[in-house]
Amino acid sequence: MKNQIPEHQILKSQIPQNQTIDIINSDIPTRAVNITDHEKPTIVTTPKGVLTALAAFLIWGFFPLYFKLLKDYDAIEIIGHRIIWTFVTILLIMTVTKNWHWVKVIKANPKWLLYTAVSGTIISVNWLVYVWAVNHDQILEASLGYYIGPLMGILLSLVVIKEKLRPLQWMAVILAAIGVAIQLVVLGKLPWVSLLLASSFSVYGLMHRHTPLDALSAMFIETALLVPVFIGWFAMHDVASSQLDFWLSPSIFLLMIAGPVTLIPLLMFNKATKMVNFSLLSFLNYLTPSMIFLLAIFLYHEPFNIYKLITFAFIWTGLVFFSYDLIKQRNT
After folding, report:
1. 88-99: b (≥16 Cβ within 10 Å) or e
2. 8 φ, ψ to 5°?
3. Residue 8: CB partners within 8 Å, gap ≥ 6?
4. N or C, where is the chain less crowded by C-beta within 10 Å?
C-alpha cells in the first residue's frame, strides 16, 4: 500500500476520538481498502490532495508492471526481498525521525511481539499470493480479490467481533457471495487467489485495530522478525539470492526497490487523507483494483468471458451498495 513522520508519534490508544488520524499512526494497514473512522473529519479537498491520492492509487495499480519484471525469480524469493528492503527502508526512516517509542510498548507487554509476528506472517502470505498471481497470469483474480476486500472486511466484523450489519451491508455481502458462487458453479473451482487476498488482508486489518502499535512501527517489527526467516530460506534453496555474488551485483537493484515501492504510496496516501474528504477518497480507493483489472485484460490479455463478467458485475454492484452505505453513515 505517507508524509514525514514527526518525532513525537503517539500510540493509537492516546488519540482523541474527535481527531483526524494519521495513517502512519493509525490502524490502517498497507493499502487503502477500508476507511472506517467513525468521526467526521473536517477536511477540505485540495487539488494537491487529490493529485497525491491519485499518485498513491496509481502506484498501487501499476504494481503488476513491477512484479512482472521479476517473473524470473521465485515468488517466495521476491517476497523475501520485499520484506528485507522494506525493513531497511523503515529502519532508515526510524533512525532519522528517532521513532523508537515501540520499544517501550514491547517491554511493557511482550505479548505484542508474538501478536505482531502473526500479523506479519499474514501480510507476507497476502504479498506472496499477489506476486504469485501476477507472475502466473492470474491478475484478474488479484483484482477481484481487492474488489472483494472491503466486503470481506465487514463480513469478518460480523463473525469475529459480532458487529451488526446494516441492510445495505448485508446486500453487498450477499451480492459478493453470489459472484463467488457463480465462479464455483460455472468454472468448477473457487477463486482461491481472490479469496486469499481478500481474507488475509481483512484479517491483517482487523488485527491492526487491536494493537497499541502504530502502523509503521508494527510493520517494522513484522519485517524485522521475518528477515531471518527469508535469509534462512535463501540459504536452503537453489535461488539467485543464495549466492553472495548476487547481493553485490547490479541485478539486486530491481529487488532492492521493493522496499521504497512498498512504502512510498503508503506515505503519499497518508498525506492525502489530510487533504481529501472521505467521500472522494473512498471513491478513489477503487482506482487500484480497476487499474489491475484493465492491465489484466488489455495489456496481459488474460481470458475474460461472460461468466467472469457476471462475477465482476455482482461484486461491483455489491460495492455500490457498500460505498453508498459507508458514505451515508459518514454523513449522519
Report:
1. ebbeebbeeeeb
2. -100, 35
3. none
4. C
CA dist 4 → 96, 117, 273 (Å): 10, 26, 14
Per-residue exposure over 222-245, b if at least 16 CB sit within 10 Å of its own CB, e if not: bbbbbbeebeebbeeeebbbeeee
C-alpha distances out from residue 187 to 155, 203, 274, 300, 308, Å: 24, 27, 44, 21, 9
* Cell numbers that stand for 295 in this block: 492491465
Q: What share of the chain is helix, strand, coil (3-state, %, to 5)?
A: 70, 0, 30
Give the end-to-end CA distance of the chain in Å, rounded to a whole number.
29
Burial tier of 166 (Cβ tally within 10 Å: 0-12, 13-18, 19+): middle
- CA–CA separation, 330 and 277 (whole Å): 11
State the pTM of this model: 0.81
- Phi, psi dihedral angles at 161 (to 5 degrees): -110, 10
CA distance 20 to 207: 21
pLDDT tens digit at each of 332 positions of the chain: 444 444 444 444 444 444 433 333 333 444 434 444 444 446 788 889 899 999 999 999 999 999 999 999 999 999 999 999 999 999 999 999 998 999 999 999 999 999 999 999 999 999 999 999 999 999 999 999 999 888 888 888 788 877 788 898 899 889 988 988 888 887 777 889 999 999 998 898 888 888 898 878 988 999 999 999 999 999 999 999 999 999 999 999 999 999 999 999 888 887 887 888 766 777 788 899 999 999 999 999 999 989 889 999 999 999 999 888 877 877 76
- Cα–Cα distance for residue pair 273/282, rounded to 1 Å: 10
Q: What are phi and psi of 138, to 5 degrees?
A: -120, 35
Whether 144 and 311 have beta carbons less than 8 Å apart is answered as yes
Q: What cell numbers appear for 324 in the block? A: 453508498
Sequential DSSP letters for 282-307: HHHTTHHHHHHHHIIIIIS-----HH
